[in-house]
Design goal:
Number of helices of chain B: 20
Largest sheet of chain A: 6 strands, mixed
Order of helices and strands of chain A: HHHHHHHHHHEHEHEEEE
Largest interface: A-B, 42 and 52 residues
Structural class of chain B: mainly alpha
Oligomer: heterodimer
Shape of chain A: elongated
Radius of gyration of chain A: 30 Å
Strand content of chain A: 5-15%
Number of helices of chain A: 12
Number of strands of chain A: 6
Helix content of chain B: over 70%
Helix content of chain A: 40-55%
Number of domains of chain B: 2
Number of domains of chain A: 2
Distance between the termini of chain A: 88 Å
Radius of gyration of chain B: 21 Å
Strand content of chain B: under 5%
Structural class of chain A: alpha/beta
Shape of chain B: globular
Number of strands of chain B: 0
Largest sheet of chain B: none
């Protein structure tokens, strides 16, 4: 029996479809990529191969008609479950479904799309030519490449679309600040706090651009984007005496703990790391843009307050 | 948001549409709509920039004045074509009878495009590069009325200004969410791609391959936030395909269209030398067709757009390179050209960050090249494949040059991945053309 005859066996296609369903189901429960990691061949390959054979093989057998009927039921079932779980995730937080239901939504989308694409091919198979002239294997090779490209891209795109839409549905009333906080977390609140507590013509002094401030309060371009038109000045880990004297009265030094990993932890965190005579120190209340504590006419010392973010007015 | 959206629509219909209709009146209507957005926003931002250099402050009133100054003569010159266009569009919609398979494909497209717009109308600018550079400049331009406040150091004038000025338009009109501009670029990509393909293939096949294009992960992802890669891809890829249309249709309108699109691609990102590849191709085609004036015509529209930014950037840098010295600068890499070890690293890098993400579409493109010879259509489709191969050569040589000049080149693979996005429309266009020939063979 040659390969072509083998493929034409009525059991091959239903068996491959069941194998694909099981692989995708397994990946929904374990994690996307699980089948490829443990059984050599990725579930995406089964997915693409099943669609490819559906296009090129005869699907008129009774068994296939039964498979298509089951597939239609599965399409409805998977779609309803996937959309419901996505909405639940959107109403709560990222990975909520994974935490509570132990299901990977980015794996489940493959099940939905597989059943959807099987349904589409079932309906429109007659529109796709089975072979082209004397091209032999070239035409099927091109179709397989295109199917594989679709299988690699569609789940990513549709999962992203559903996840993002579901989030938006449940957060329609979020303000600009809520949205920016969602994206940038505490750093955004700190920037709003600094903005609220410094004049627009002031000078803001930043820690050096190194861990633990590298991608946050120590990055002058990043900080400037939030605090413009304030003048941004970068300092070294220990500010020289001459620099301190040089700064005018409208200067504010950031008090910042830093968010990146550094060594030795936690001693490497916290800035400024020296005593600084201050006109005023305003500390930020954690998880808020409000001031938690205001101290006037004193010497700033690292670790003097339980608060770790704020501004020192010179 | 209503005012800023209306302003963008006005720029598209008032500037982009008449220019497109004057250049390519017989092109597919959907492609004309897509091109109207690209040309409208590109040319308008270029004039905003020029106006500001001559002292015209960025303000809503000034920008509206500039808009009407352009809009009135353009609409006057193209009024008959515009009238016909607006009469034909509803007719075409009314007469179109969709088959079920076409409804499914349209449904997929509508879902993706609407999702993209929902997201970009909802989210403010939040991605790092955009917050720090592209959107920051847009904010400062709109806030201060001038550009110099934003050019604090060379970091801020490393990239051209199309997207930043487009953000400024939104902020000047009172908007806070400029990212919908990128959904519009995504939509335009789909419309133009469909329209260009429709010139050679059936409506069903064109629609199918537009779906293939818009379900491409990186393209959809980049439509959701404000990086320059998608915008660059749309201008460059559509500009390159316009060259193919010019040669096939023997219509200079497409040549000028290409010059404008490629020129505007350098108004989005100026460091990647793909524009030079298109220039070379236009030169070769002009020589081959014995119509050298075509090259002059292309240069006439391309260079003013490119040079405006280059001259300004060089002025800010205090020195810098002209286009000629820039091209000759690429010659510096020739001393390392026989370094086989480096070539090995470059090939590994490109395989990992470019070919692997392309995946199936690159395989399909390779198969399409073989098929092209089997069906003996290599002469018919030679130019579009030649364009893609020249672009691939630029990518390989550009990466090689990058590896010579930049020590940490190997560490920023995601930049190469983002840049290689521009090949998706080109690969898919080539594959679709070959498949359209298959269908004819079948018949």
């Amino acid at each position: 029996m040659n390969l072509k005859q083998l493929y034409q066996k009525p059991i091959i296609l239903p068996a491959l479809m069941i194998l694909t369903y099981l692989s995708l189901l397994l990946e929904t429960i374990k994690y996307p990529g699980f089948v490829g990691n443990h059984f050599l061949i990725s579930a995406k390959v089964y997915f693409a191969l099943a669609l490819f054979l559906l296009i090129f093989l005869n699907t008129g057998a009774k068994l296939m008609k039964f498979v298509f009927r089951v597939n239609r039921i599965l399409l409805i079932a998977f779609s309803v479950v996937y959309i419901t779980l996505n909405l639940i995730e959107g109403a709560h937080y990222t990975n909520y479904v994974l935490n509570f239901f132990h299901l990977h939504l980015d794996g489940m989308i493959y099940l939905v799309l597989f059943s959807f694409l099987v349904f589409i091919i079932e309906k429109f198979k007659h529109l796709i030519p089975n072979s082209v002239g004397k091209l032999g294997i070239i035409y099927p090779a091109m179709i397989f490449s295109l199917v594989f490209f679709g299988v690699s891209n569609m789940p990513y795109v549709f999962d992203m679309a559903f996840a993002r839409d579901s989030y938006i549905v449940f957060h329609l009333n979020s303000s600009y600040d809520d949205k920016m906080f969602y994206q940038w977390g505490k750093f955004y609140r700190f920037m709003v706090f600094v903005k609220n507590n410094t004049p627009t013509d002031s000078t803001i002094v930043l820690p050096p651009m190194e861990d633990p401030w590298l991608m946050g309060s120590g990055n002058p371009h990043f900080v400037r984007a939030f605090l413009h038109p304030r003048k941004i000045v970068q300092e070294t880990k220990i500010i020289s005496e001459s620099d301190l004297k040089k700064y005018g009265s409208n200067t504010y030094i950031l008090v910042t703990w830093g968010k990146e990993v550094c060594k030795p932890d936690p001693e490497c965190h916290g800035w400024p790391r020296q005593d600084i005579p201050a006109k005023k120190i305003i500390y930020e209340e954690p998880d808020s843009v409000n001031a938690a504590e205001v101290k006037e006419n004193l010497i700033y010392k690292l670790g003097d307050s339980k608060y770790v973010y704020g501004v020192i007015e010179l | 948001m209503i005012l800023s959206t209306a302003l963008i629509l006005l720029i598209t219909i008032g500037i982009g549409l008449p220019i497109t209709l004057l250049l390519t009146p017989r092109l597919n209507k959907l492609a004309i709509l897509g091109l109207s957005y690209l040309l409208g926003i590109g040319i308008y931002t270029l004039l905003m920039f020029a106006g500001n250099i001559f002292g015209i402050r960025f303000s809503l009133l000034n920008e509206l004045g500039l808009l009407f100054l352009l809009l009135v003569p353009l609409v006057f010159f193209a009024k008959r074509r515009m009238k016909n266009f607006f009469i034909e569009i509803p007719k075409a919609v009314k007469n179109s009878k969709l088959e079920p398979v076409e409804k499914v494909m349209l449904g997929v497209l509508v879902f993706l495009i609407v999702t993209s717009f929902i997201n970009t109308f909802y989210w403010p600018v939040y991605m790092w590069d955009s917050i720090v550079l592209y959107d920051f400049r847009g904010h400062v331009f709109a806030g201060t009325g001038y550009m110099k406040e934003a050019f604090i150091d060379s970091y801020y004038y490393g990239y051209p200004l199309l997207t930043s000025l487009a953000h400024s338009i939104i902020y000047l009109a009172g908007g806070k969410y400029p990212q919908f501009l990128y959904s519009a670029f995504y939509l335009s990509l789909g419309l133009i791609f469909y329209g260009f393909l429709r010139e050679f293939a059936s409506w069903k096949l064109s629609l199918l391959f537009s779906v293939v294009l818009l379900i491409t992960g990186p393209l959809f992802y980049h439509s959701l936030f404000s990086y320059t890669n998608l915008t660059f891809t749309v201008y460059l890829a559509m500009g390159a395909i316009s060259i193919f249309l010019w040669d096939k249709k023997k219509d200079s309108g497409y040549l000028i269209l290409s010059a404008l699109l490629i020129g505007l691609s350098t108004w989005v990102r100026s460091t990647e030398p793909f524009w030079a590849a298109v220039l070379l191709i236009v030169f070769l085609v002009s020589i081959y067709r014995k119509k050298v004036w075509n090259f002059a015509l292309y240069s006439l529209f391309f260079f003013p757009i490119r040079e405006v930014w280059k001259v300004f950037q060089n002025y800010l840098y205090g020195n810098g390179a002209s286009t000629v010295t820039e091209i000759s600068g690429y010659g510096n890499m020739f001393s390392s050209i026989f370094d086989m070890n480096r070539w090995g690293q470059v090939i590994t890098y490109l395989y990992k960050y470019v070919v692997t993400p392309w995946g199936g579409i690159f395989a399909a493109f390779v198969v399409a090249v073989i098929a092209l010879f089997l069906i003996k259509k290599q002469k018919d489709l030679f130019l579009i494949y030649f364009i893609v191969f020249v672009f691939l050569a630029v990518l390989i040589l550009g990466t090689f040059s990058f590896s010579v000049t930049m020590e940490s080149w190997y560490a920023i693979g995601d930049a190469a991945e983002r840049l290689s996005m521009l090949f998706y429309p080109l690969f898919i266009f080539c594959i679709a053309l070959v498949l359209s020939k298959f269908v004819k063979i079948k018949k």
